[in-house]
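Sequence only, no structure available. Ideas?
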Amino acid sequence: MGNKKKTQSDKVSVHRATSESEISVTLDHAPRGDIKGGIQTPLHFFNHMLETLAWRACMNLKVNVKLSDYKLTHVLCEDTGIAVGEAFCEILEKIFQEGVNGAGVGIACIDEALARCVASFEGRAQIHLSAEAAVAVEHVEDMQTADLVGFLEGFTQGARATLHIDLLKGSNPHHVWEGIFRAFGEALRIALAPCPWRAGTTPGVKGQVKLVKES
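Reply:
I predicted one. Tokens follow.
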């Protein structure tokens, strides 16, 4: 069990295996590839949201999921979130010394729905959803919205990032969640943009946290 990472110059691969699931994630910022064809989970709307996230973040994302005997959608979404979060964190660490924003704000709409996301990579995992976003609707298309929240919670764990997500407007469940994932992707795109002035440090003045193990 556990996570394994493999990196190349422009690519990160994370493999997360537990007794409940096996998740493989590949992320890169190379020229655009076939995002839609690379995302394979049993949940169609979840695939659409992962595609939306990758498109707005301007990243190529591949996700492959295998579940154990119990086909639990909460496990699928949360574990995928952890693996995707780790991949984004690894991409950030690869460009850390060159300088990266490390934080970003995204505001996005689709028809009547409008959402905002603020993301900051400072080594602390937190998520804060507005009440409207957290309990907007119980189901959307072929999945429970609680599982979409589980993905976001898993992402913050894997990325060790802080997310603030607010639903500003919206009534159609599909639009509400697509607006949220669009804003999330925009925030990640800005967070991963170059910022030479911040070379070797985080968006907070504390700087990078280094853990020292005592013998």
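The helical segments are 35-38, 44-57, 73-94, 131-134, 145-159, 173-191.
Hope that gets you unstuck.
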